[in-house]
Design the sequence.
Protein backbone atom coordinates (compact mmCIF):
# COMPACT_ATOMS: atom_id res chain seq x y z
CA UNK A 1 0.00 0.00 0.00
CA UNK A 2 1.39 3.41 -0.97
CA UNK A 3 -0.13 6.67 0.16
CA UNK A 4 1.08 10.07 -1.01
CA UNK A 5 -0.52 13.15 0.51
CA UNK A 6 0.93 16.53 -0.42
CA UNK A 7 1.28 19.50 1.89
CA UNK A 8 -1.08 22.20 0.77
CA UNK A 9 0.70 25.18 2.24
CA UNK A 10 4.07 26.08 3.63
CA UNK A 11 5.10 27.46 6.98
CA UNK A 12 3.21 30.68 7.73
CA UNK A 13 5.37 33.77 7.41
CA UNK A 14 6.20 35.86 10.42
CA UNK A 15 6.00 33.06 12.98
CA UNK A 16 8.95 31.62 14.91
CA UNK A 17 9.91 28.26 13.49
CA UNK A 18 11.19 25.18 15.27
CA UNK A 19 12.25 22.02 13.47
CA UNK A 20 12.12 18.48 14.81
CA UNK A 21 13.59 15.34 13.27
CA UNK A 22 11.81 12.32 14.76
CA UNK A 23 13.20 8.94 13.75
CA UNK A 24 13.54 5.32 14.72
CA UNK A 25 16.94 4.59 16.27
CA UNK A 26 17.69 1.69 13.92
CA UNK A 27 19.52 1.58 10.58
CA UNK A 28 16.41 2.42 8.60
CA UNK A 29 15.49 5.48 10.63
CA UNK A 30 19.04 6.82 10.84
CA UNK A 31 19.82 6.29 7.15
CA UNK A 32 16.47 7.76 6.09
CA UNK A 33 17.16 10.95 8.03
CA UNK A 34 20.75 11.05 6.80
CA UNK A 35 19.59 11.00 3.18
CA UNK A 36 17.06 13.76 3.79
CA UNK A 37 19.52 16.03 5.57
CA UNK A 38 22.20 15.50 2.94
CA UNK A 39 19.63 16.71 0.42
CA UNK A 40 18.14 19.43 2.63
CA UNK A 41 20.42 20.45 5.51
CA UNK A 42 18.44 21.69 8.48
CA UNK A 43 19.16 22.39 12.12
CA UNK A 44 16.60 20.40 14.08
CA UNK A 45 16.00 18.92 17.48
CA UNK A 46 16.63 15.17 17.25
CA UNK A 47 13.97 12.95 18.81
CA UNK A 48 14.83 9.25 18.86
CA UNK A 49 15.58 6.32 21.13
CA UNK A 50 16.06 2.57 21.13
CA UNK A 51 14.52 0.69 18.22
CA UNK A 52 11.44 -0.37 20.21
CA UNK A 53 10.79 3.19 21.40
CA UNK A 54 8.36 4.16 18.66
CA UNK A 55 5.83 6.39 20.45
CA UNK A 56 8.10 9.33 19.83
CA UNK A 57 5.69 12.08 18.82
CA UNK A 58 4.49 12.41 22.41
CA UNK A 59 7.84 14.06 23.12
CA UNK A 60 7.28 16.80 20.55
CA UNK A 61 5.48 20.06 21.24
CA UNK A 62 4.98 21.66 17.84
CA UNK A 63 2.52 24.24 16.60
CA UNK A 64 2.01 26.89 13.97
CA UNK A 65 5.20 27.65 12.06
CA UNK A 66 6.99 24.49 13.23
CA UNK A 67 8.24 21.71 10.95
CA UNK A 68 8.31 18.06 12.00
CA UNK A 69 9.90 15.25 10.02
CA UNK A 70 8.87 11.74 11.12
CA UNK A 71 10.67 8.65 9.85
CA UNK A 72 10.27 4.92 10.36
CA UNK A 73 7.78 4.85 13.24
CA UNK A 74 4.23 3.56 12.96
CA UNK A 75 1.68 6.26 12.27
CA UNK A 76 -0.94 4.16 14.00
CA UNK A 77 1.10 4.14 17.23
CA UNK A 78 1.53 7.93 17.07
CA UNK A 79 -1.87 8.91 15.70
CA UNK A 80 -3.18 11.03 18.58
CA UNK A 81 0.00 13.11 18.80
CA UNK A 82 0.13 13.49 15.02
CA UNK A 83 -3.42 14.83 15.03
CA UNK A 84 -2.58 17.09 17.98
CA UNK A 85 0.27 18.73 16.07
CA UNK A 86 -1.68 19.04 12.83
CA UNK A 87 -4.51 20.74 14.68
CA UNK A 88 -1.97 23.09 16.27
CA UNK A 89 -0.80 24.14 12.81
CA UNK A 90 2.53 22.32 12.52
CA UNK A 91 3.68 21.11 9.09
CA UNK A 92 4.60 17.41 9.04
CA UNK A 93 6.41 15.12 6.63
CA UNK A 94 5.80 11.47 7.53
CA UNK A 95 7.52 8.52 5.84
CA UNK A 96 7.20 4.94 7.06
CA UNK A 97 6.63 1.29 6.13
CA UNK A 98 4.88 -0.02 9.26
CA UNK A 99 1.15 -0.49 9.81
CA UNK A 100 -0.48 2.93 9.55
CA UNK A 101 -4.24 2.48 9.63
CA UNK A 102 -6.19 5.47 8.34
CA UNK A 103 -3.94 8.39 7.47
CA UNK A 104 -5.30 11.77 8.60
CA UNK A 105 -6.16 14.12 5.75
CA UNK A 106 -4.66 17.55 6.30
CA UNK A 107 -3.22 20.32 4.18
CA UNK A 108 -0.30 20.32 6.64
CA UNK A 109 0.61 16.64 6.17
CA UNK A 110 2.74 15.05 3.49
CA UNK A 111 2.74 11.28 4.01
CA UNK A 112 4.70 8.62 2.17
CA UNK A 113 3.50 5.27 3.51
CA UNK A 114 4.18 1.87 1.95
CA UNK A 115 3.62 -1.24 4.07
CA UNK A 116 4.72 -3.83 1.51
CA UNK A 117 7.16 -6.42 2.85
CA UNK A 118 9.93 -5.66 0.35
CA UNK A 119 10.56 -2.03 1.20
CA UNK A 120 11.75 0.11 4.09
CA UNK A 121 11.67 3.78 4.97
CA UNK A 122 15.14 4.48 3.56
CA UNK A 123 14.19 2.96 0.21
CA UNK A 124 11.07 5.15 0.20
CA UNK A 125 13.23 8.21 0.93
CA UNK A 126 15.60 7.11 -1.83
CA UNK A 127 12.69 7.19 -4.27
CA UNK A 128 11.54 10.52 -2.86
CA UNK A 129 15.01 11.97 -3.51
CA UNK A 130 15.34 10.33 -6.94
CA UNK A 131 18.24 8.14 -5.86
CA UNK A 132 20.47 10.98 -4.71
CA UNK A 133 22.09 9.02 -1.86
CA UNK A 134 21.41 5.45 -2.89
CA UNK A 135 24.34 3.79 -1.04
CA UNK A 136 22.81 4.84 2.29
CA UNK A 137 19.42 3.42 1.28
CA UNK A 138 21.09 0.14 0.35
CA UNK A 139 22.85 0.14 3.73
CA UNK A 140 19.52 0.57 5.52
CA UNK A 141 17.82 -2.17 3.51
CA UNK A 142 20.56 -4.60 4.49
CA UNK A 143 20.13 -3.50 8.10
CA UNK A 144 16.39 -4.19 7.89
CA UNK A 145 17.18 -7.73 6.64
CA UNK A 146 15.84 -6.92 3.17
CA UNK A 147 18.83 -8.48 1.43
CA UNK A 148 17.13 -9.10 -1.92
CA UNK A 149 15.69 -5.58 -2.00
CA UNK A 150 19.08 -4.14 -1.04
CA UNK A 151 20.90 -5.96 -3.83
CA UNK A 152 18.23 -5.01 -6.35
CA UNK A 153 18.40 -1.36 -5.33
CA UNK A 154 22.21 -1.44 -5.53
CA UNK A 155 22.36 -2.53 -9.19
CA UNK A 156 22.82 1.04 -10.56
CA UNK A 157 25.84 1.49 -8.27
CA UNK A 158 27.83 -1.28 -10.01
CA UNK A 159 29.43 -2.31 -6.73
CA UNK A 160 31.73 -5.28 -6.33
CA UNK A 161 30.73 -8.18 -4.10
CA UNK A 162 33.23 -6.93 -1.53
CA UNK A 163 31.66 -3.46 -1.52
CA UNK A 164 28.17 -4.92 -1.16
CA UNK A 165 29.42 -6.95 1.79
CA UNK A 166 30.76 -3.77 3.37
CA UNK A 167 27.38 -2.04 3.09
CA UNK A 168 25.67 -5.18 4.40
CA UNK A 169 27.91 -5.19 7.46
CA UNK A 170 27.47 -1.46 8.03
CA UNK A 171 23.68 -1.78 7.90
CA UNK A 172 23.81 -4.70 10.30
CA UNK A 173 25.97 -2.72 12.73
CA UNK A 174 23.76 0.37 12.72
CA UNK A 175 20.71 -1.82 13.25
CA UNK A 176 22.46 -3.78 16.01
CA UNK A 177 23.14 -0.54 17.85
CA UNK A 178 19.42 0.22 18.05
CA UNK A 179 18.39 -2.81 20.08
CA UNK A 180 18.06 -2.52 23.84
CA UNK A 181 15.56 -1.70 26.55
CA UNK A 182 17.15 1.67 27.33
CA UNK A 183 19.84 3.75 25.60
CA UNK A 184 22.26 2.62 28.30
CA UNK A 185 22.24 -0.85 26.70
CA UNK A 186 23.61 0.58 23.46
CA UNK A 187 27.12 1.40 22.35
CA UNK A 188 25.88 4.81 21.14
CA UNK A 189 22.66 6.70 21.69
CA UNK A 190 20.99 6.69 18.24
CA UNK A 191 21.13 10.49 18.08
CA UNK A 192 24.88 10.33 18.75
CA UNK A 193 25.36 7.68 16.07
CA UNK A 194 23.33 9.73 13.59
CA UNK A 195 25.52 12.76 14.28
CA UNK A 196 28.65 10.67 13.70
CA UNK A 197 27.30 9.38 10.39
CA UNK A 198 26.00 12.80 9.32
CA UNK A 199 29.53 13.96 8.48
CA UNK A 200 29.85 11.34 5.72
CA UNK A 201 28.07 11.50 2.39
CA UNK A 202 29.88 8.30 1.42
CA UNK A 203 29.29 5.21 3.60
CA UNK A 204 32.59 3.71 2.47
CA UNK A 205 34.41 6.72 3.94
CA UNK A 206 32.60 6.20 7.25
CA UNK A 207 33.69 2.54 7.21
CA UNK A 208 37.30 3.43 6.43
CA UNK A 209 37.76 6.42 8.72
CA UNK A 210 35.41 6.28 11.69
CA UNK A 211 36.50 5.03 15.11
CA UNK A 212 32.79 4.71 15.92
CA UNK A 213 32.45 2.15 13.13
CA UNK A 214 35.29 0.11 14.59
CA UNK A 215 33.74 0.22 18.07
CA UNK A 216 30.43 -1.05 16.70
CA UNK A 217 32.12 -3.77 14.66
CA UNK A 218 34.09 -5.06 17.65
CA UNK A 219 31.03 -5.03 19.92
CA UNK A 220 28.91 -6.84 17.36
CA UNK A 221 31.52 -9.54 16.82
CA UNK A 222 31.68 -10.26 20.54
CA UNK A 223 27.90 -10.31 21.05
CA UNK A 224 26.99 -12.40 18.00
CA UNK A 225 29.58 -15.03 18.95
CA UNK A 226 27.81 -15.49 22.29
CA UNK A 227 24.37 -15.50 20.67
CA UNK A 228 25.24 -18.45 18.45
CA UNK A 229 25.49 -20.60 21.59
CA UNK A 230 22.06 -19.71 22.99
CA UNK A 231 19.64 -22.53 23.93
CA UNK A 232 16.64 -23.32 21.73
CA UNK A 233 13.43 -23.75 23.76
CA UNK A 234 11.21 -24.84 20.85
CA UNK A 235 12.43 -26.23 17.54
CA UNK A 236 9.89 -27.53 15.04
CA UNK A 237 9.63 -27.64 11.28
CA UNK A 238 7.96 -24.26 10.99
CA UNK A 239 9.04 -22.38 14.12
CA UNK A 240 11.87 -21.97 16.59
CA UNK A 241 11.93 -20.14 19.93
CA UNK A 242 15.27 -19.04 21.37
CA UNK A 243 15.54 -17.93 24.99
CA UNK A 244 17.84 -15.11 26.08
CA UNK A 245 18.77 -14.11 29.62
CA UNK A 246 18.27 -10.51 30.68
CA UNK A 247 21.65 -8.87 30.05
CA UNK A 248 22.86 -5.86 28.04
CA UNK A 249 24.53 -8.02 25.40
CA UNK A 250 21.42 -10.15 24.82
CA UNK A 251 19.26 -7.04 24.57
CA UNK A 252 21.65 -5.65 21.96
CA UNK A 253 22.00 -8.76 19.84
CA UNK A 254 18.48 -10.20 19.80
CA UNK A 255 17.26 -8.47 16.66
CA UNK A 256 20.30 -8.97 14.46
CA UNK A 257 20.63 -12.59 15.59
CA UNK A 258 16.99 -13.12 14.66
CA UNK A 259 17.77 -11.74 11.21
CA UNK A 260 20.71 -14.12 10.87
CA UNK A 261 18.57 -17.11 11.86
CA UNK A 262 15.94 -16.09 9.32
CA UNK A 263 18.52 -16.05 6.54
CA UNK A 264 19.95 -19.43 7.58
CA UNK A 265 16.50 -21.08 7.83
CA UNK A 266 14.32 -19.28 5.25
CA UNK A 267 11.32 -21.61 5.67
CA UNK A 268 11.15 -21.24 9.46
CA UNK A 269 9.79 -18.44 11.66
CA UNK A 270 11.87 -17.42 14.66
CA UNK A 271 11.02 -15.82 17.99
CA UNK A 272 13.75 -14.58 20.30
CA UNK A 273 12.41 -14.17 23.82
CA UNK A 274 14.45 -12.10 26.26
CA UNK A 275 13.62 -12.54 29.93
CA UNK A 276 12.65 -9.30 31.67
CA UNK A 277 13.25 -8.47 35.35
CA UNK A 278 9.53 -8.84 36.14
CA UNK A 279 9.46 -12.37 34.71
CA UNK A 280 7.90 -11.39 31.40
CA UNK A 281 9.48 -11.42 27.96
CA UNK A 282 10.54 -9.02 25.25
CA UNK A 283 10.06 -10.79 21.91
CA UNK A 284 11.53 -10.31 18.44
CA UNK A 285 9.71 -12.25 15.71
CA UNK A 286 11.01 -12.91 12.20
CA UNK A 287 8.66 -14.38 9.61
CA UNK A 288 10.18 -16.95 7.24
CA UNK A 289 12.09 -15.24 4.45
CA UNK A 290 10.14 -17.39 2.01
CA UNK A 291 6.83 -16.24 3.53
CA UNK A 292 7.31 -12.67 4.72
CA UNK A 293 3.96 -12.19 6.35
CA UNK A 294 2.09 -12.52 9.61
CA UNK A 295 4.66 -11.22 12.11
CA UNK A 296 2.72 -8.01 12.73
CA UNK A 297 -0.60 -9.85 12.90
CA UNK A 298 0.84 -12.31 15.42
CA UNK A 299 2.41 -9.70 17.69
CA UNK A 300 -0.56 -7.36 17.63
CA UNK A 301 -2.61 -10.09 19.33
CA UNK A 302 -0.64 -9.35 22.52
CA UNK A 303 -0.23 -6.24 24.69
CA UNK A 304 2.61 -3.94 23.53
CA UNK A 305 2.92 -5.87 20.25
CA UNK A 306 3.40 -4.40 16.79
CA UNK A 307 5.68 -4.17 13.78
CA UNK A 308 5.57 -5.09 10.13
CA UNK A 309 4.71 -8.18 8.11
CA UNK A 310 8.23 -9.63 7.99
CA UNK A 311 9.50 -8.56 11.41
CA UNK A 312 7.65 -7.57 14.54
CA UNK A 313 7.83 -7.83 18.30
CA UNK A 314 6.23 -7.60 21.71
CA UNK A 315 7.83 -5.17 24.11
CA UNK A 316 6.60 -6.76 27.34
CA UNK A 317 4.72 -10.07 27.24
CA UNK A 318 3.39 -11.06 30.68
CA UNK A 319 4.90 -14.33 31.89
CA UNK A 320 1.50 -16.01 32.11
CA UNK A 321 0.98 -15.43 28.36
CA UNK A 322 4.06 -17.41 27.30
CA UNK A 323 2.05 -20.51 26.40
CA UNK A 324 -0.56 -18.50 24.53
CA UNK A 325 2.15 -16.79 22.52
CA UNK A 326 3.86 -20.04 21.53
CA UNK A 327 0.49 -21.53 20.55
CA UNK A 328 -0.35 -18.49 18.41
CA UNK A 329 3.15 -18.55 16.90
CA UNK A 330 2.75 -22.20 15.98
CA UNK A 331 -0.72 -21.64 14.55
CA UNK A 332 0.54 -18.76 12.40
CA UNK A 333 3.46 -20.60 10.82
CA UNK A 334 3.11 -24.37 11.11
CA UNK A 335 1.82 -25.90 7.89
Sequence:
Amino acid sequence: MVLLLAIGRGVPKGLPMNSFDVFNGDADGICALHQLRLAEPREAELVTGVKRDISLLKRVEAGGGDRVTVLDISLDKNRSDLVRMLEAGAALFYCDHHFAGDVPVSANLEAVIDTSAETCTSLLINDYLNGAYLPWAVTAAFGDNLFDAARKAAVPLNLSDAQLSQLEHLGTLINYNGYGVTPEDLHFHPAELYRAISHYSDPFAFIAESADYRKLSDGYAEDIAQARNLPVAVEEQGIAVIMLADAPWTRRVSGVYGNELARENPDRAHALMTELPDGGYRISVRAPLNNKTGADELCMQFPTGGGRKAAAGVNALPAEMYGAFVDAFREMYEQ
